[in-house]
């Protein structure tokens, strides 16, 4: 293994999902739903296969999906992207992030990301031989946020880009317009590119709305906007994502993407185009149901003795394990199958400086009510 990857072993998701299978535990670790996406959309994928749509699609993706993405950005956010030249279909958001960082960062460039961050960011930055500069999100009035002064102080002449994930995994924070304005102003002042990971764009709660950074004044031209069908339509295994950006940025990302995977799988693309055009009510119902599941799990975890932080979006709640007498989330999650028959994710692995997140553990609530209830019953054994 090359030295720039020496700190990267098996991802925590693979480790913890394998542990769940080995021990027969309830898996509230890796974020994937245990129910299927909209039936008509699943049918479309099967129809696409039956109709012989099984060969390479065009490099930038099936035109119909690029059109559907473009229409969706326009209708939902008032953002206009040309399906030809400003939209690129990728193998999930993961490839989109990797290709963006590889395409836009020189070795030695600095990329700012809010810590804790989704684990692929650090690996993508390392592959580019760039340097990830973390800015820590800390709880304040019940939600994780950043200090604008710390963000400003993280910028140097080598800073090239900022990775912005909102709704944010693993904290569940949805950045406010004020927070996004701070980011946007700094991007413009220092001529930075923003790479936005918006895979949970539809999954927000309590009337909180997701605001894409690209909708702020002066930001469309410097933002690589990324999303994916996985979370929106409960098809995480379809690995179908997209990038929207001005032509020069999309061309750069596509130049890298074409040699990573050439193109993304064909049958899902027609089905996701159908989903974006016909299943947004299904998605709204999914978000409402996830809000109930969030409340259900929060209540249960609180009763089990955790301190629970309320997320405004995503699949995840963050807990502080100290009230239960534990101090290290990695140690606890490795023992949790034995202690309680449940698997969760130690949040510290999403930090550049793990000590800052040592006492947090992430639980996923994108599960059937009875699964959440059984997990809570088991977790009550901890206290
Ligand atoms: N970004 C974040 C913040 C995520 O939580 C995930 C997991 N869905 C991804 C990217 C990866 O998305 P995909 O499966 O589309 O590659
Ligand atoms: N996004 C999901 C999570 O954060 C799954 C990620 C993965 O399996 N790589 O749990």
TrEMBL record:
Report the gene name. dapC
What's the protein name? Putative succinyldiaminopimelate transaminase DapC
Concerning PANTHER family, the annotation shows: FI04487P
A Pfam family hit: Aminotran_1_2
Please indicate which superkingdom the organism of origin belongs to: Bacteria
Protein family (similarity comment): Belongs to the class-I pyridoxal-phosphate-dependent aminotransferase family.
Name the source organism: Nonomuraea terrae
Q: Which cofactor does it need?
A: pyridoxal 5'-phosphate
Q: Which NCBIfam families does the record cross-reference, listed alphabetically?
A: PRK07777.1
Every copy of the Aminotransferase class I/classII large domain together lies at 26-379
Keywords (alphabetical) are: Aminotransferase, Pyridoxal phosphate, Transferase
Spell out the molecular function terms from Gene Ontology. kynurenine-oxoglutarate transaminase activity; pyridoxal phosphate binding
According to the UniProt record, one GO cellular component term is:
cytoplasm
């Amino acid at each position: 293994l090359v030295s720039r990857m020496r700190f990267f072993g098996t991802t925590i998701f693979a480790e913890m999902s394998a542990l769940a299978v080995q021990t027969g535990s309830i898996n509230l670790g890796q974020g994937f739903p245990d129910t299927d996406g909209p039936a008509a959309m699943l049918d479309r994928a099967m129809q696409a296969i039956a109709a012989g749509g099984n060969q390479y699609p065009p490099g930038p993706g099936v035109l119909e999906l690029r059109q559907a993405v473009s229409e969706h950005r326009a209708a939902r956010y008032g953002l206009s992207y040309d399906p030809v030249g400003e939209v690129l279909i990728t193998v999930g958001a993961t490839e989109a992030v990797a290709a963006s960082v590889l395409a836009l960062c020189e070795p030695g460039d600095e990329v700012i990301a809010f810590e804790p961050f989704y684990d692929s960011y650090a690996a993508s930055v390392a592959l580019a031989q760039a340097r990830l500069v973390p800015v820590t999100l800390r709880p304040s009035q019940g939600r994780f946020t950043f200090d604008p002064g710390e963000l400003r102080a993280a910028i140097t002449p080598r800073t090239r880009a900022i990775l912005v994930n909102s709704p944010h995994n693993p904290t569940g924070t949805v950045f406010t317009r004020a927070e996004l304005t701070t980011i946007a102003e700094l991007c413009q002042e220092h001529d930075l590119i923003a790479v936005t990971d918006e895979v949970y764009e539809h999954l927000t709660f309590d009337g909180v709305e997701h605001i894409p950074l690209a909708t702020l004044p002066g930001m469309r031209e410097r933002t690589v906007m990324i999303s994916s069908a996985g979370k929106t339509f409960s098809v995480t295994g379809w690995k179908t994502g997209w990038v929207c950006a001005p032509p020069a940025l999309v061309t750069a990302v596509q130049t890298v993407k074409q040699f990573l995977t050439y193109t993304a799988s064909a049958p899902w693309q027609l089905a996701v185009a159908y989903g974006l055009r016909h299943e947004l009510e299904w998605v709204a119902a999914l978000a409402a149901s996830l809000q109930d599941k969030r409340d259900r799990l929060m209540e249960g975890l609180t009763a089990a003795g955790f301190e629970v932080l309320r997320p405004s979006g995503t699949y995840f709640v963050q807990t502080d394990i100290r009230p239960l007498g534990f101090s290290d989330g990695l140690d606890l999650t490795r023992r949790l199958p034995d202690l309680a028959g449940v698997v969760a994710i130690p949040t510290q692995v999403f930090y550049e400086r793990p000590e800052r997140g040592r006492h947090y553990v992430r639980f996923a609530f994108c599960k059937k009510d009875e699964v959440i209830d059984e997990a809570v019953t088991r977790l009550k054994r901890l206290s």
